Amino acid sequence: MNLELILFIVLALIAAVSAVMVITQSHPVMSAIFLILNFFALAGLYLLLNAQFIAVVQVIVYAGAIMVLFLFVLMLLNTSSEFKVLTDKKFIKFFALLISAFVFVQLAYLIFFTKPSNAVKGNLNVSSQIGTIQNIGKELYTNYIIPFEAAGFLLLAATIGALILAKKKFE
Amino acid sequence: MYQNSTEIFQMMPFIIIGAGILLSIAVEMSIKKSELILPWFSILIFAVSAVISIAGIQQESVLFGGMIAAGGKAAIFNFIFNVGAALVVLNSVDYIKKYGTYYGEYYILVQSSVLGMMMMSGAKDIIMIFMGLELMSICFYVLAGINRKKFSANEASMKYFLLGAFATGFVIYGIALIYGTSATTKIDDIISGFNRLITNPLFVAGFIFLLIGFSFKIAAFPFHMWVPDVYQGSATTVTGLMSTTGKTAAFSVFIIILAAIFSTHSINKFTPYFAAIASLSMLYGSIVAISQDNVKRMLAYSSIAHAGYMAIGLAAGNISSESGIIFYLAAYTFMNIGAFGIVSIIEGENDTQLGISSYAGLGNRNPVLAAFMALFMFALAGIPPLAGFFGKYYVFIGAIEGGLTWLAVIGVISSVISVYFYLRVVVYMYFREPQEEIKIYSDNLSLSAVVVSGLLVIIFGLFPDTLLNLITSALIR
Amino acid sequence: MTSIPMEYYLVLSGFMFSVGIVGVLIRRNAIVVFMSIELMLNSANLTLVTFSSYLGNVTGQVFVFFVMTVAAAEAAVGLAIIIAIFRNKLTVDIDKINIFKW
Predict the structure, then answer these.
(1) Average pLDDT over every residue of B14-33
(2) B70: β partners
(3) d(CA B311, CA B271)
(4) Mean predicted confidence (pLDDT) in A85-105
(5) For chain B, what percent of residues have pLDDT higher than 90?
(6) Residue C70 above 90 pLDDT?
(7) CA nearest C23: which of B209, A38, A100?
């Protein structure tokens, strides 16, 4: 056991357990807090994967901005602990568990069966270089400039949309 | 990079619409009476962009550093999106006034959604498909709930949003697996290595996730649960936009990512999947639509059935079924926009006059509207010689060529079933006496949109071969 | 990172994806359903970053950047929709706001 593997196991356990807690907690605020924990664990995993920029953005954008928005809305709506957490329809509950268990087993089987790592020649030198801000910024502003512009339009449309739906008075 | 003038010419639609969005925002912010300007401005940019797109049909080129293709099939799709959106805008001017809520943002969001669709239909990189899909979807989520004081609109918007975001999750996960197994997001590279990649089960799994995600967007059977409520709850003009151009955009993505199957002779591993969703959607849509009394809801179920007919073409996966799908999409877009246009004219305040009984006696009271409604209903039912018939015909021919005769037979059976509920509207219009007092607002702009779509449906029905040859020539090149 | 097999990361992300699906299908609170969707998006991000660094290919990480943009935009719009619906009906319970049949 080296340190890396121990770190991975700890972070993966935190991520998995917090993911389950998100969907089982009865209070929405608790769900949100476990989701933040999950995002932090993922940020740690990204660091293990040498994706420094993504790890930082994960904390700033996801755990920071998006989850704060969630918590704001939860506070605004003042929802208390739910009386009934799960949907009433028994059939759906059963179906949901079945379908997701199927998806998971199928994916796990495929992943271990096809061994995608065989096709991959892990080059440590390369991978520690690609995740830097410098490299990703260069890619964003050269090869991926058009999706980047599209993201601008997307955020513009989302801003307009959020404004028109949530603004209190509209003349 | 951009040496020749053709490329600059073909880039213009994107630039025009992008600049149009920004200009519209400026107009909306600075001018008080923006409702007099924005609709006409939107129609102008859609019309210019449609003309430029279709003018470049003969030459296919890759623009923006290999991210977006223009010309060829993308030209046809862009034409459909722009003309469809222009008709919807024309239809919306008076409809929005009737609702008593005018937001200039409506037109800005319609323009943004068209930009998203154009990105999808010309995408050369999976990232572009994803960004276009999200740009379109986010605009639709908002447009569905734009009448925010009405609870049914809120609910439609929320249902559409939750299920759409759920579908997005599938799309991203599928893209992640495709990227992992092919080490690229360039669609051309994936297509050229398709025969090798398809043997990798993880790649197939990723592809199926992607297909499931887009099956939500085309409203095919097991993923249809949002359709009736969203189509009924949204403003009628918005429903007209998302049921036609939105569906076309999703189908254009299917055609792009399955290009290896359509053009070369790769084995279509996804035939069982598409055959299943096609047959189930056709039968489910046609059978459930029979019991609907609300015309908007009836058209929603009919839209599920039409997604099924088009999916037959995907199951067949040959060049004639591909051109059949594109012809069908064009025909479907204009007949459905026309039908929803008439529904929006008849519709009264607060969701009244949507039931089929409101159409009783329309043949006497408003013969023009009734005639066009009958035209669209016949076209949707697939009665020759209208556009809808040839759409179905070409798709079925493709299916028979692909050895899927049983699927074509199911298609014919479900078309026969669907004749019942389409003709029911016609029977109500001409052979029933009105039970209640129906007040129809005179709405010349919507009527002109209806007339234009009606003419397009007739033209598509009169010259189907010419158009099909045009589509096929654009595909083969 | 060489000592950890790539499959471990992929299975973790597959697990999170399945948990997200269950959450979307069984929870009643619209906000929690939306959180489950965020969980699904994050599991896809983990897959992308894993492949990206094991392949030594930057595209995956660029794509994650775009997914985050989209998630932010969706969060803004989705929460606005939830606020709009709460203004009209004072509930975010999916089962209660069914005025149409599902």
Answers:
(1) 90
(2) B61
(3) 10
(4) 75
(5) 36
(6) yes
(7) A100
* Tokens, residue B79: 């034409």
pTM over 0.90: yes
Give the closest residue to B4 by CA, choosing from B71, B75, B78, B63: B63
pLDDT for the residue numbered A150: 92
Nearest to A108 among C14, C51, C52 (CB): C14
Kindly identify which residue of chain A lies nearest to residue B119, measuring between CA atoms.
A150
Residue C90 contacts B, CB cutoff 8 Å: no
pLDDT of B100 over the 80 cut: no
Pick from B112, B119, B181: which is nearest to A157 by CB? B112
Instruction: Say whether both A108 and A147 belong to one domain.
Output: no
All structural domains of chain C, each given as residue ranges with its CATH number in brackets, are 6-89 (1.10.287.3510)
**pLDDT, tens digit, 9 for 90 and up, residues B344-403:** 888 877 777 777 878 888 888 888 888 999 999 999 988 887 888 888 898 999 889 888
Inside any domain, residue A59 = yes
Answer yes or no: do A76 and A144 share one domain.
no
Percent of chain B with pLDDT over 70: 97
Q: Which residues of chain B neighbour A158 with C-beta distances below 8 Å?
A: 138
pLDDT tens, position by position, A100-115? 888 888 777 777 777 7
Residues A96 and A142 in one domain: no
CA distance C60 to chain A (A): 10
Min distance A117 CA to chain C CA atoms (Å): 6
Chain B CB contacts of C34 under 8 Å are 162, 165
> Does residue A112 sit in the same domain as residue A65?
no
Residue positions counted in chain B: 477
Angle between helices C59-89 and B151-182 (to 10 degrees): 170
| pLDDT at residue A125, as a whole number | 57
Report which of B292, B307, B297 is spatially closest to residue B420, judged by C-alpha positions: B292
Q: Which chains touch A (3 or more CB pairs under 8 A)?
A: B, C
Domain borders along chain B are 270-477
Chain C touching partners, 3 or more CB pairs below 8 A: A, B
* Confidence band of C100 (pLDDT split at 50, 70, 90): very low
ipTM score of the complex? Answer: 0.93
Q: How many CB pairs under 8 A join B and C?
A: 122
The minimal CB distance from B172 to the residues C24, C67, C84 is found for C67
Co-location of A5 and A74 in the same domain: yes
Regarding whether A99 and A55 lie in a shared domain, the answer is: no
Residues of A in contact with B180 (CB under 8 A): 116
Range of the domain at A159: 132-171
Find chain B residues with C-beta within 8 A of A147's C-beta.
Answer: 67, 125, 127-128, 131
* Chain C partners within 8 Å of A104 (Cβ): 14-15, 17-18
Joined together, the tokens standing for residue C14 give 């597959």
Is there a contact between A4 and C72 if contact means CB atoms under 8 Å apart? no
Nearest CA in chain B to A170: B103
Q: How many domains does chain A have?
A: 3
Neighbours of chain B (3+ CB pairs under 8 A): A, C
Bridge partners for B123 per DSSP: B68
CA dihedral (A61, A12, B178, B176) in degrees, to 10, reads: -10
| Residues from chain B contacting residue C45 (CB–CB below 8 Å) | 172, 176
A23 and A97 together in one domain: no
Length of chain A: 171
How far is B408 from B277, CA to CA, in rounded Å?
A: 14
Taking CA–CA distances from C13, the nearest residue in chain A reads A16
Write the DSSP string, B167-207. Answer: HHHHHHHHHHHHHHHHS--BHHHHHHTHHHHTT-HHHHHHH
| B354 neighbors B343 (Cβ within 8 angstroms) | yes
Task: Tell me how many residue pairs between chain A and chain B have CB atoms under 8 A apart.
Answer: 83
pLDDT tens, residue by residue, C74-99 = 999 998 988 888 887 766 666 665 54
From the list B130, B152, B185, the residue facing C59 with the nearest CB is: B185
Same-domain check for residues A78 and A93: no
